[in-house]
Amino acid sequence: MPSVKENATTEAEEQPLGWQAQKSAATRNLILDAAITCFIDLGYAMTTTAKISNKAGLSRGAMLHHFPSKSALIQAAVEYLHRRRLDAFRDAVSRIPADETDRIRAGINVYWQHLTSPLFVAFHELAVAARTDSELGDILYPAVDSFDQAWYETAKALFPEWEKTGDVFDLAMDLTQNLMEGMAINHMQEKDEQRAERLLTFLAKQLESMLEESNI
Fold first, then answer.
1. Residue 115 to residues 42, 71, 89, 108, 185: CA-CA distances in angstroms?
2. How many Å apart are CA 31 and CA 51, to the nearest integer?
3. What distance in Å separates the CA atoms of residue 158 and residue 17, rounded to the nearest whole number?
4. Residue 91: C-alpha distances to residues 88, 94, 154, 192 (Å)
5. Is the pLDDT of residue 3 over 60?
6. What pTM was estimated for this model as a whole?
7. DSSP 165
8. Long-range contacts of 197-202 (CB under 8 A, 24+ apart)
9. What share of the chain is helix, strand, coil (3-state, %, to 5)?
């Protein structure tokens, strides 16, 4: 049986390791947050490892310790961005009251909130850049597929009343995603809130009609 002294030594050895791991994770997230900010503020083409380290307030050597190449940093930033997007969306969905009567409009509002956030701006910047950057595309597109699938499953859980509508639900999701993401891209250029409200109201009515017709 270990002595008290041996136990104390073991605990003392373990504590710094735990602290170092937390510090390393915090620094890593600081770098990834800085990368996302650079994508938003500077654009993907103008984002360099030097600018990211400067935004993070770290030396380039400290950043290279966590991400030895720009490719490794971009890979991690894309995964981190999509994880943050999905976490934010799920958190917002979870706050919709269980007794909400207009669940369709509530869901639309939650998604619009997400699409007008800086996280979607960062994603859109990467998506545009990936069109002509095959290396970025190889990193981005699998993450997009993963996000879309998780988004679909989250929406499916939010709207159990659509469960028996079959392909109609898939059509409703495609309509919602394509219309709203297109609106969000346009909103980056011209923030016309009245126009957005009209379109969102129209979308909600269309979805309600689709649900009613599929249940007849």
1. 19, 27, 10, 10, 9
2. 11
3. 41
4. 5, 5, 11, 27
5. no
6. 0.81
7. G
8. 200/105, 200/108, 200/109, 200/112
9. 85, 0, 15
